[in-house]
Every structure is written in C-alpha cells, then in structure tokens.
Specification:
- This protein is 42% helix and 7% strand.
- By secondary structure, it is mainly alpha-helical.
- Among the domains are: 51 residues, no CATH class; 47 residues.
- Helix 2 runs antiparallel to helix 3.
- The N and C termini lie far apart (49 Å).
Length: 150
C-alpha cells in the first residue's frame, strides 16, 4: 500500500488536475498587480483611508530608525493580540503602551512633526478639512483604493 503524504488520492503522486472552471485567469493577477498606492495629501502629511485623514510617519526619520520603529510597532501589536487571546489585561495594557510609544516615535501620534504651525487634522474626515477641495478632485481615486466596509 502506498504511503499517504498529503491530501491527494491514494496512490497519486501529485494533485489531480483542476477542472477548467476552477482555474484563475490572468486578468485576476493583472488586477492585483495594478493596484495603486494609497491616496496621500499634497503636503505628504496624511494618507486617506475611507475618506479619513491619518497622519503619516515623520519623513525626517532615517530609514534604519523607521524600520526599527515599525518592527517595534508590529511586535507590540502582536503582543497585544496574544494578551487579548489569553485574557491577560495587564499584558494587554502594557502592549497598548508599547504600541502608543512606537506610534509617537514614528510621529503618527503626539506632537506634529511639521514646523509651519499648521493644525493637525489627524482622524478627521477629509471633506471637513482644508483638504476638502483636493479630496473632492481625487475622490474617484480614493474610492478605488479605500478598504471595503465590513
């Protein structure tokens, strides 16, 4: 009797061919490859997600520092998720503090990183900010790149 090494039918060396109706066509791949970058305000301060402005990282950070901080942020997010799954409120609170510290160091929270005294429009709807005219001109692009509602 042949040894079963996977989910293939007994004695099969590889997976059986897939029916033609299950095969993906190239347009699906092409559509995936042609996705555009997220919409960024002309001053490079915000990215627009579902019509809302989110502050970008400080561009003055070195690439090494930014990579380290992003790595710290992702590790803190994973720690928060693990703490939530374990039901450990103390670990969750500590991980949330680490997330906040990383976001502040990146410039995404806390004092603004720009120096022209312009107000911070973080988390505001773009249509309710001085970016409204610019956003209206780019709304077709924004709708194309926004995340779908759940």
């Amino acid at each position: 009797m042949p040894v079963r090494t996977g989910f293939f039918p007994r004695g099969a060396a590889s997976a059986p061919p897939r029916p033609e109706s299950c095969r993906h066509e190239r347009p699906v791949l092409r559509q995936f490859l042609t996705m555009t970058e997220p919409l960024v305000t002309p001053d490079d301060r915000y990215v627009v997600v579902r019509g809302r402005l989110w502050r970008r990282s400080n561009p003055a950070l070195s690439e090494d520092a930014r990579e380290r901080l992003v790595s710290d942020l992702m590790a803190a997010r994973r720690a928060k998720q693990a703490a939530m799954r374990a039901g450990d409120e103390k670990a969750r609170a500590q991980a949330r503090e680490q997330v906040d510290a990383a976001k502040r160091a990146l410039g995404e929270r806390g004092p603004v990183w720009w120096t022209d005294r312009a107000p911070d429009w973080n988390r505001h709807l773009a249509k309710n900010t001085p970016y409204a005219g610019w956003y209206a001109e780019h709304s077709a692009h924004a709708e194309h790149t926004d995340e779908p509602d759940d």
